[in-house]
Every structure is written in structure tokens, then in C-alpha cells.
Amino acid sequence: MRNTERHFVTGSNSLWHIYKTVPFWKVAKNFIVIQMARYTPFLPMKNWLYKTFLRMKVGEHSSFALMVMPDVMFPEKITVGRNSVIGYNTTILAHEYLINEYRLGEVIIGDEVLIGANTTILPGVTIGDGAIVSASTLVNKDVPAGAFVGGNPMKIIYTAEQMAERQLKT
């Protein structure tokens, strides 16, 4: 289950309440920083931009591939551990706006995690240390440490124990 805070709204849908939720100038600044980071090929610069301007927590030697899209409204709710790889065009969301409510949740990506290209990570999710997320996966719940997951909806393909067994056989 995802760990999110629910905030109910009345009247128009929750996205119409956006600037009651987050200041316009914060979104504008975040958008500019994220667009610069999405296109730069310099990994240390991306991490510096994310940590300095977006207040994301990014571990040493973690790599964000080209076109990764962190949450534009609440990037400070994203933590990426040490030596992890976030694949091409991955989206990391810390919010979701629905009709009658919006939800906010921390996204925690552990150490030495591999996220495949074109993955979407929903708010309130924790991805454990050493996990592998297959390309084009919708991460809609927590991923156990060391597991290999994939699909839409996400399913566990191999547990940490099964992955260890497979590695011993090769």
C-alpha cells in the first residue's frame, strides 16, 4: 500500500486548487530547473541542480538518465539513495490530483537501485535497496529490497532470495 496524505477539496476538481497547494513561483522555478536537468548530459550537474534548487535528497554517485522527470510541485519529497540509476524518461511523482482530493507522498528510492527506462513511480512508494525495476513499469506499491519487479500493474518477478539463487547458478 502507498503511504500518502489525503487532502479533500470541494467545488472544482483538485487541480483547480493547485496554487492553494503550492506557490506558483515555486512551480515555475522547479519547471525551469527540471527542464535544464532533463537535457544536460553532465550527471554531477544534474545531482547538484536537484539537491541545490529542488531540495531533493540524492545520494553519492546516483545517476539520472536523460529526460528523467521528477515531481515539479513537490520534488523535496523525493529521496534517491547512493549509487542508484534512474532510467531514461522515468517519471517520479510525489503528488496526484484527483477529482475530489489530492494526495501527497514521499518517494524513497534506496541504495543501488536500478530503475528501467519509461517507468512511472507513484507517490508514497518505497523502493528497497538493491531492487531492480523493469522498463515501463508502473510502480504503484512498495518494492522489497533486492526484488526484481516489472509490469503494469507492477508484479514481483523474483524476490531477493530468488535473485540470489539465480546469481549462484550463473
From TrEMBL:
Its EC number is 2.3.1.-. InterPro entries: Hexapep, Trans_hexapeptide_repeat, Trimer_LpxA-like_sf. Keywords: Acyltransferase, Transferase. One of its GO terms (molecular function) is acyltransferase activity. This is Acyltransferase. It holds the Pfam family Hexapep. The keyword Transferase applies.
